[in-house]
Amino acid sequence: METYSSLSDHELTGLLKSGDKAAFTEIYHRYKWVLFLHALKRTRDREQAKDIIQELFTTLWDKRNDLDLRSHLSGYLYTSVRNRVIKTFAHQQVASDYITSIAASINDDNCITDHKVRQSSLAAIIENEINELPEKMREVFILSRKHHLSHREIAQQLGIEETTVKRQISNALKILRVKLGLFTWLALLFKFL
After folding, report:
1. Which long-range contacts (CB under 8 A, 24 or more apart) does 162-168 make?
2. DSSP assignment, residue 143?
């Protein structure tokens, strides 16, 4: 009886299709190293090349019944390795694009979130400074800026002169500019540190 090592690729393929494990083993030993080197040359990654070869031979065994070789076994195996390398690179590119997209999205979200945090922090600081104003000045300022009342309407509502309303708003703005100017300067300082 002939040993499997002396059989041609065509004969081994016929035996493989009939489920002969020894024929599969012979094909594996005959081509594993040359195919590994072929995959390694393309991928430049030993583990990736090993995975490609393992996947190739697993698929060869699983689909042995459907195997329809129109060329030589060696040509089929080389083409399969090439296609798997291309598939691996395509998968890596998709994964890389996905990671880049997620990173960009996170950066955009962080930028938006950072802006919202700064905006709400500034609003809280302004609100705190308004609350620190003297009582009458605060009341006039709130009616003007938050309730959008005119100087005349504020004067009528509080029973004071229009000039007093104007002076209270002007003084409130001066106080807030000084205090908020300091906060703006500090915020800019910390941003660049």
Report:
1. 165/140, 168/136, 168/137, 168/140, 168/141
2. H
Surface-to-core class of residue 16, CB atoms within 10 Å of its CB (0-12 exposed, 13-18 middle, 19+ buried) = buried
pLDDT, tens only, 7-26: 988 889 889 989 999 999 99
Which residue type, as a one-letter code, is found at position 34?
Answer: V
CA distances from 93 to 87, 89, 98, 101, 139 (A): 10, 6, 8, 12, 62
The pair of structure tokens assigned to 80 is 């399969």
pLDDT tens-place string over residues 22-63: 999 999 999 999 999 999 998 888 999 999 999 999 999 998
Distance CA 47, CA 70 (A): 31
